[in-house]
UniProtKB/TrEMBL annotation:
CDD domains: TPP_E1_PDC_ADC_BCADC
Alphabetical list of PANTHER family matching this protein: PYRUVATE DEHYDROGENASE E1 COMPONENT SUBUNIT ALPHA, PYRUVATE DEHYDROGENASE E1 COMPONENT, ALPHA SUBUNIT BACTERIAL AND ORGANELLAR
Keywords: Oxidoreductase, Pyruvate, Thiamine pyrophosphate
Domain Dehydrogenase E1 component: 82-377
A molecular function GO annotation: pyruvate dehydrogenase (acetyl-transferring) activity
Necessary cofactors: thiamine diphosphate
Taxonomy, superkingdom: Eukaryota
Biological role stated in the UniProt entry: The pyruvate dehydrogenase complex catalyzes the overall conversion of pyruvate to acetyl-CoA and CO(2).
Protein name (Swiss-Prot/TrEMBL): Pyruvate dehydrogenase E1 component subunit alpha
Gene it is expressed from: PDA1
The EC number(s) this enzyme carries: 1.2.4.1
GO biological process terms, semicolon-separated: pyruvate decarboxylation to acetyl-CoA
Transmembrane segments: none
Amino acid sequence: MLSRTIRAGRLSPLRRSAFVPVVRRTVTTDAASSHADKESVPEEDDKYFTVNLSDESFETYDLDPPPYSLDVTKAELKKMYYDMVSIRRMEMAADRLYKEKKIRGFCHLSTGQEAVAAGIEHAISKDDSVITAYRCHGFALMRGGTVRSIIGELLGRREGIAHGKGGSMHMFTKGFYGGNGIVGAQVPVGAGLAFADKYLGRSNATICLYGDGASNQGQVFEAYNMAKLWNLPVLFGCENNKYGMGTAANRAAALTDYYKRGQYIPGLKVNGMDVLAVKAAVQYCKQYALAGNGPLVLEYVTYRYGGHSMSDPGTTYRTREEIQRMRSTNDPIAGLKQKLLDWEVVTEEELKAIDKDARKYVDDEVAEAEKMPPPEPTPQILFEDIYVRGSEPDFMRGRIPDENYYYSKGE
């Protein structure tokens, strides 16, 4: 009877009754989805307590999920909040300066995506490496750059983080390798950073990020292949903010489950609007990679409030109502703020003080950046830092070795 049922292309009533419907959970973007018992929150700032994550924080591909609990301190939670407020305030300053025509060229802001940069930084060490695309200001700040140096860079000033020559597309600091302007090109470079760590025997991981718009680039899959072949300690991560420039993800990608794109590499989808879920995921995945298991592909489900860049209003391919709904119900800063108050980690007055301190720090740094002098229009500045010291060729087209110049703070 079963064979007849199969040939007929349908199941008999008896066979159908044996099937139990499976409810597939999907990752939420609720920024306030974590839970903690406020009675368990200690008085001390540096004492750990347990936060329970939503059971919709992760989806996995060929991988056991991370623990759905996270040990944190009150001090760390307050620092996470401070970090996200600082990133947003800095991006708002960049928005204003661009509209005032003080920042020129390209400028890509990450307003709404702060939980990804802050959560990653709180899960790794300063010895680990981070590389990303050009929506990078928050990552540069988390990796140790100052607001002054980042805004100064956007303004094209001499004391900017890349001496005013890179702008929004190229920012570097110790442990942070950009800010890369070519779509997807940072992914194989990230694999190379991980290869260097493995080759030199260092117990470090590389966090390599790209957007959903870059996820179909061939070099991404080439990097996957080499990373898995050599079991490199690299966490590939797609910041899925739902739109590649002005194109919705489902109009550009046949498979929008980006965490499954590694095929032979396990994957993890994460609530990228909950800074605690991001921290838990990256902490777990770093341990996995450093245990010799090789790379992972993560997908941070997030959202950008603004357009792709400052030249994009961001409202021609999505509705204002959609943006407002995400702002009002899924905001990463508001979500953590709610939890800090619910768990009595801080009082309203303490939270206002943290807000005030973060905003004052950013505003003061931005004011200093605006006072920075532009670079002098000299050949020495134009031709500096073309070569790494000691690697200069004997002959250069139109130049001589004596005309190699290098940036010096003492000049």
